[in-house]
Amino acid sequence: MRPHEIFKEVEPAIVTELFTTFREEDRDVYKSALASLAQSRKLRAVFVQRKSVADQIAWMHKTLKLRGSDTVGEHLLQVWFMKFQQPLLVRFCDGMGIEHNGEGSVEGALPDELDEDKLNETVDGLYADFNPRIVSLYLNLFNLQRPGGWEALENLISNDHRVRLGEEPEAAPAEEGGALSEADSEGEGVLQAEKGSPDEPVASEPEEGNETEVEAETSPERD
User: Fold this and answer.
1) What is the pLDDT of residues 125-184, one digit of tens each?
2) 97-121: per-residue pLDDT in tens?
3) Under a CB-based contact definition with an 8 Å cutoff, are residues 36 and 191 in contact?
4) How far apart are CA 82 and CA 192, in angstroms?
5) Of 117, 123, 129, 168, whose CB is crowded by the most CB atoms within 10 A?
6) Residues whose CB is less than 8 angstroms from the CB of residue 97 and which lie 6 or more positions away in sequence, other chains included
7) Integer distance in angstroms from the first to the last C-alpha of the chain?
8) C-alpha–C-alpha distance, residues 45 and 198, integer Å
9) What pairs with residue 161 in β-bridges?
């Protein structure tokens, strides 16, 4: 499953949480993603910046479902997990015996194989203690980190309904989203950004495939 396919299947509330967290905790990443996605659609960033926040997020989610957005989409997911879902990453690495820096960032090479028994035990623990939808998203993302994925994880994704995106996990918590934790963003790669505050609403977006650049009559609000 490629990043654009993940964004087709993932719960929209999780995507909203992802972008809302970036907007509140790391605005540069939010603006960088917005600018990069707008550029990929041959639009100026101001076209999206002048929408309401809810419409910005909906537009970015729609764009991330396109094959050409794979690089941006995978980067956003990686940074979100590394910065704001560290307890989940640490538990997975510890359970699988993967060396990490204490914050879930893998140190050294990823293993060639994943032990099936360890994987099943670790995954059961993750679903018991974290938001199941975020666990499913992480497992699908982790499987992208090696060409072809891992056989044990591929089998789990194919055969365990909890892991398949788009299905209702059992015993899902009432609130969408897991606990957020602050992390030092130093050293994180960022997308090429156009600066601008994404707050002011604009008229509705043109039809898919017929988008034209909207010239801004006023500058976006400053942060």
Assistant:
1) 999 999 999 999 999 999 999 999 999 999 999 999 999 887 655 544 444 443 333 333
2) 999 998 888 888 899 999 999 999 9
3) yes
4) 19
5) 123
6) 111, 115, 118
7) 37
8) 9
9) none
pLDDT in tens, 59-87: 999 999 999 999 999 999 999 999 999 99
Let me know how long the chain is. Answer: 223
Q: Can you read off the two tokens belonging to residue 174?
A: 């009432």
pLDDT digits (tens, 9 = 90+) for 33-52: 999 999 999 999 999 999 99
Contact 99, 108 (CB under 8 A): yes
* Phi, psi for 118 (deg, rounded to 5): -60, -40
Backbone angles phi, psi at 177, to 5 degrees: 100, 150
How many Cβ atoms are within 10 Å of 195's Cβ, its own excluded? 14
Buried b (16+ CB within 10 A) or exposed e, 82-121: bbbbbbbbbbbbebbebebeeebeeeeeeeeebeeeebee
CA distance 93 to 200: 42
Question: Would the pTM of this model clear 0.90, i.e. be above it?
Answer: no
Provide Rg for the chain, Cα atoms: 18
**HEC-encoded secondary structure of 42-53:** CCCHHHHHCCCH
Q: Residue 100: helix, strand or coil by DSSP?
A: strand
* Cβ-proximal residues to 84 (8 Å cutoff; 6+ apart), any chain: 21, 25, 180, 181, 183
